[in-house]
Write a structure and sequence with these properties.
The chain has 285 residues and is of the alpha/beta class. Helix content is 54%, strand content 13%. Strand 2, helix 2 and strand 3 form a beta-alpha-beta unit.
């Protein structure tokens, strides 16, 4: 059995461990700075054994699934310890920083900068589930900087997870992901905050929350420890997206203040086009 090391035993790392044990028959070793996560991952059968950094040199694959603010440092440490044939890939949702940090590392070719677009609002080893990555997109950045055999090995793993591959450069990735993923989390957190501040009666929130509210605020249940580093690491792009979002909110507020039914109707009708795009994505999948 090949040796898989997963560093970071939360939702993504744990789900990868579960599926790769099942689909590729890896023996899975785990590392996490939180000892409770290691204990729980062992109890749940997510990993087979705990390991430390000193014993990863013979690993076939190392997955780095830690918060994005420490991912580059962890990647450097891993690259310092692996063999020449080890595949190392990360799963972070911000790519430019990590790619710049390890650019000149002697074992840069062993690294694949990846971002599987999958997840839930839950966190920790208990959140890990099977089949999380089926039919999802996995973005690979700077594929040309990875050894072709290492890259081929990574793509083979992603295909076993039934993922579709898309190539991007790190700058492009971080810009687009700020709009289509990071901004939605900001919106959800701030919607939840606004409702909590305005509606002090928790029973009213519970009784009156529609399925629309529940689905819109779902992401506000996400881990702050995960998302604070993401927002700060992708600061420039998120600020740009927030500026555009705030502009649109202010325009919408003015339409309501001015009783401008025509403009309200037009802007909502035009925005309905988003369902055409999303329906097309579902159809293509």
């Amino acid at each position: 059995m090949e040796k898989l090391v997963v560093i970071g035993l939360g939702l993504i790392g744990g789900s990868l461990a579960l599926d790769l044990k099942k689909r590729v028959n890896f023996k899975v070793y785990g590392i996490d700075q939180n000892p409770n996560h290691v204990t729980k991952a062992l109890e749940l059968g997510i990993i087979d054994e705990e390991i430390d950094f000193e014993k990863i040199s013979d690993a076939s694959v190392v997955i780095i699934a830690v918060p994005v603010n420490v991912a580059a440092d962890v990647t450097n440490e891993v690259l310092n310890r692996i063999s020449k044939n080890t595949l190392v890939f990360d799963v972070g949702s911000v790519k430019q920083g990590i790619c710049e940090t390890i650019l000149n590392h002697p074992k840069r070719k062993n690294f694949v900068a990846a971002h599987p677009l999958a997840g839930t609002e839950f966190s920790g080893p208990e959140a890990a589930i099977y089949n999380l990555f089926d039919d999802k997109v996995n973005i690979i950045c700077e594929a040309d900087k990875s050894d072709w055999q290492i890259l081929d090995k990574a793509i083979s793993i992603f295909k076993k997870l039934n993922m579709r591959i898309k190539m991007m450069n790190p700058e492009e990735h971080d810009r687009h992901i700020a709009y289509v993923s990071h901004l939605s989390h900001v919106s959800s957190f701030m919607l939840g905050k606004t409702v909590l501040e305005i509606e002090k009666n928790e029973q009213h929130i519970f009784d009156m929350a529609s399925t629309g509210f529940a689905s819109t605020v779902r992401l506000a249940k996400s881990s702050a420890n995960t998302w604070t580093p993401i927002f700060l690491q992708n600061k420039k792009n998120i600020i740009r997206s927030l500026e555009e979002y705030i502009k649109n909110l202010n325009e919408f507020k003015e339409m309501i203040e001015n009783d401008d039914a025509v403009a309200l109707n037009e802007i909502m009708n035009n925005t309905n086009y988003i369902k055409t795009i999303l329906n097309g994505i579902r159809h293509n999948n």
